[in-house]
Amino acid sequence: MLRLRCKKFASSVHDLVRNRPADAERFEAALAHAAECAECARRLASAQALALALHGLAVEDERDGVPEELERDLVIAFRQHFASKERVAIGSLPARARSLRYAWLLAVCALFVTGLLIAYRQSGSNRSQSVQDERAARAERHELRASGSPAIESVVPEKAVSKKGSLNVVRKGVRRGESLRQRRERAPGRRAIDGDSIAGEIATEFIPLVPPELLPFESGQIVRVELPRAALVSLGWPINAERSGEWVRADVVIGADGLARAVRFVR
Amino acid sequence: MAAEILSDQDLLRRMAAGDEEAFVTLYRRWSGCVYRFARQMSGSTSIAEDVTQDVFLALIREAERFDADRGSFPAYLYGMTRNLVRRAIERASSFVTMQDGDGALDQVEAGDLFAEMERAETVARVRRAILALPVHYREVVILCDLHGMSYAEAAAALGCAVGTIRSRLNRARALLSERLGSSTSAPVETKRCYA
């Protein structure tokens, strides 16, 4: 038969009481020991009383149910939680659309900035081109004055050299693809050679310098220049020899490629 | 398949997918234990209600946090409850007395009145004695002696070794016996026995 000593009995008495049905042999040994030892009998009685009291408390608490409204509230919370999750899932679509919109906005901004940069560079190159043109015009003017027979085509566009030697920029836009006739018709205040005038000026018709079929004209500028009257000879115009040293004003149509297309004289 | 016969883990999985029936089943299966444990630990009905609500709200929001490889669902649930109760007790800072105590007397027949009064008085004293224990003793007594957990289950719920549970429980029972000594038995004294 299993025998227990007091130390072992004291350390296991509560477990023995608690596991009584499962450990009957051990419990019988404990009972046998308690019958011989008064102190261990007291320990056993104390453990049994405590177990009984705790069991009574457990039974008492078993009666207490969870308040019903707690379940109701939690079910509502459960529904709300999953409803909000669905909302989040649906809400992600507009979020994607928003990000797409931002991407488009960024792309437009990028295009705008790129356009600005291109325009800035073009204006910068135009400025540098203007400086070069100015120098070339001066040199050309000196050559013309020295030789007295300049070629119209070599007149630098956009700049007109005044009598005093200063540069007067005269720019008049020509629409892309617009013929000279159309351009003339577009300017109602301007008359042809017979009566064509601007602010008191009288101008001839534009005289083509290059046949249009050989050198198509798409866009360009009109540049006012001053030429020695002797230069009219190269265009087949008669000149008065006495006045060959005088200067005449002319509007030269310069194409985008820098070549002169037509000229007219202004008085 | 009826939700009632599903395991806790299956219910939890369904619940995480939005199955309300699974949630209700899981709640009805475990809410009593959670509520009682919280009430026994705190001695307060309102704390018990709050903790029960918080535990199941946490389950609703983070059901996927439960990892079966790390322990059983009851251990996970009791562990969560214990942490929340401890926090609630710390917030309350002072010991909470029983609010609705032992209302069982309201339903007692006249003939059993004295017996019921005695029983209710005993229950109240045991409850007070448990509440007077330090928290780490209290929780092992409640889990092992009131909720019928094994040492291993209690160790898993409290996150400590089985030996720790055993030693704490012995100490807690000794303290309880001392405090309840006048009504249950004489205090246990450690004396050398030559039997």
Automatic annotation (TrEMBL), chain A:
It comes from Pyrinomonas methylaliphatogenes. It comes from the Bacteria. Residues 129-148 are annotated as: Disordered. This is Zinc-finger. The chain crosses the membrane at residues 102-120. Residues 132-145 have a biased composition (Basic and acidic residues). Keywords: Membrane, Transmembrane, Transmembrane helix.
Automatic annotation (TrEMBL), chain B:
It comes from the Bacteria. Pfam families: Sigma70_r2 (PF04542), Sigma70_r4_2 (PF08281). Residues 26-93 form the RNA polymerase sigma-70 region domain. GO terms for molecular function: DNA binding; sigma factor activity. Residues 125-176 form the RNA polymerase sigma factor 70 region 4 type domain. SUPFAM superfamilies: Sigma2 domain of RNA polymerase sigma factors (SSF88946), Sigma3 and sigma4 domains of RNA polymerase sigma factors (SSF88659). One of its GO terms (biological process) is DNA-templated transcription initiation. Keywords: DNA-binding, Sigma factor, Transcription, Transcription regulation. NCBIfam families: sigma70-ECF (TIGR02937). Belongs to the sigma-70 factor family. ECF subfamily. This is RNA polymerase sigma factor, sigma-70 family. It comes from Pyrinomonas methylaliphatogenes.
